[in-house]
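DATA SHEET
Item: assembly model
Revision: 1
Owner: S.N.
Input lines:
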Amino acid sequence: MNFYTFFREKFTYLFFNLVLALLFAVIFWKMTVHIGIMILFYLFWFGPLLLYYILSYIKKKNYYQNIVRFQAQLDQKYLLPELLVRPSFLEGQIIYDTIADTYKQMHEHVNVYKREQIAYREYIEAWVHEIKTPLAATRITLQNQGMDAGVFDELDKIEQYIEQVLYFARSSDVSQDYIIRAFPIQEVVNKVAKRNARSFIYQKIRLEMNELHEIVYSDVKWVEFILNQIVGNALKYSKSNQGVIKIYTIKRDNQIQLHIEDNGIGIPEKDLFRVFNKGFTGENGRKYSQSTGMGLYLCNRLAEKLNLGISINSKKNVGTNVQLIFPQSKVLLIES
Amino acid sequence: MIKYKILIIEDEKRIREELNEYLENVGYETATVIDFSRILTIVKEVSPDLILLDLNLPYIDGYTIHREIKKLSDIPIIMVTSRDTEMDELMSMSLGADDFITKPYNLQILMARIEAVLKRVYSSERDNFLSYHGMKLNVASGTIEYQSKEQILTKNELKILYFLIKHKGSIVSREQMMEYLWSADLFVDDNTLSVNITRLRKKLEQLGISNLIETRRGMGYILP
């Protein structure tokens, strides 16, 4: 709002006044009214009018220009009502009250969904923890009865799917339950290697890994989950007896890259850029079944929340290389 | 070799019983808690060498039990839980748990943890030695002795021999052997295992023990 736009809005009214004043001037002139009285008359007429306009212009200008400025500066524009003060002029008060009320209502409306989402997530977490007990019981019972390896492979799969559900729930926006701390990358890699030991051993796939000395900052559990998905994929798409999975790190200026490289079937180029999409299974997923298209999608989602980079390179029939990038500057980690 | 006694504190009946059976089968003495209002008395009565403590118990929560037990004694405790966030783990470790494992655990890993904790807490002279037919395996220094001759073993060879002696008299498949090695952070593949066994045999031969490790075709290895 500036002076020009403000007065342009009042133009009709002022114009009408001016025409009327002119009419009066003609009448006064015909009636030969004294010039001094005429001036006084117009002063009483236009003085207060213009004064009122100027004062209200100053008042409104401050208020509305603030609104425009706040709105431009805000990242989350819907927070605008929080910044506004109730103005002293009626028209502004009406608008302010309306916006404030709408805002409050909207807030409550959003909160309903937030609460529902939290409740849902809590239920999923509780459910996952509950189902682990019968699963543990099943596992030990079968072990005592000397069941063959196939049953345990299926149990492993069940557990993996359950874990996916848990991490999907955790990856939602409302969730904040991760803890960033420093840990040796070897710790997580070893854990994941052990978790997949049976697959490596029974499919006769070699794990090639040097000692990894790097320390990274992140949430151990989440990284373990991500890594487990990646290694799980590598195993799934490797060829038995001749598969080799290499795990190594590369140190760059301000990042540490963890590479998981396999010599499996690879991903066709046309599918490569979509592998992180939700529910995307691609050619390999169709051929090898048992692909929900959730694994890499979740990895990407969790990595985003942790500020980790994840990228994938692949060549059909040559292999796949997934890299997980840990930023090394602590500033980046505290941000967001 | 002494038998360690493990006390299982777990409210899920089936897990308790099956775990009990499993631990007995692999050669531990075991005891279980059935009445959870008397945990502390039972701990005193049984005086186990290690406690497997489930965190989610009736009457009192696992953390409190843990604190109370630690007041009484230095018995090592491995916490078992189905909660698996970093927070739970940090909390348990900061309370002084000797180890922490989440359900549903892989039994292979549970065994490795139990062994590791027992070794850390009770590593005495006696436990560091395993003997088999006059041959002495020193686990701490990684050497074998036979008729006053000595051979130094690599980490892989040591673990392989250790596992075979532990299972003497029964066939150990290559896969079982590898699973055991993997649970100890030794990620060997098929070829490496063959190479290691060959080297181990050579070292044993140099000590004058030949044909100690027998191969059963298609099944695995055995120390008779």
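QC remark: Chain B touches chain A at residues 12, 14-15, 18-19, 21-22, 25, 82-87, 89-90, 102-109, 175, 178-179, 182-183, 185, 187, 189-191 (CB under 8 Å).
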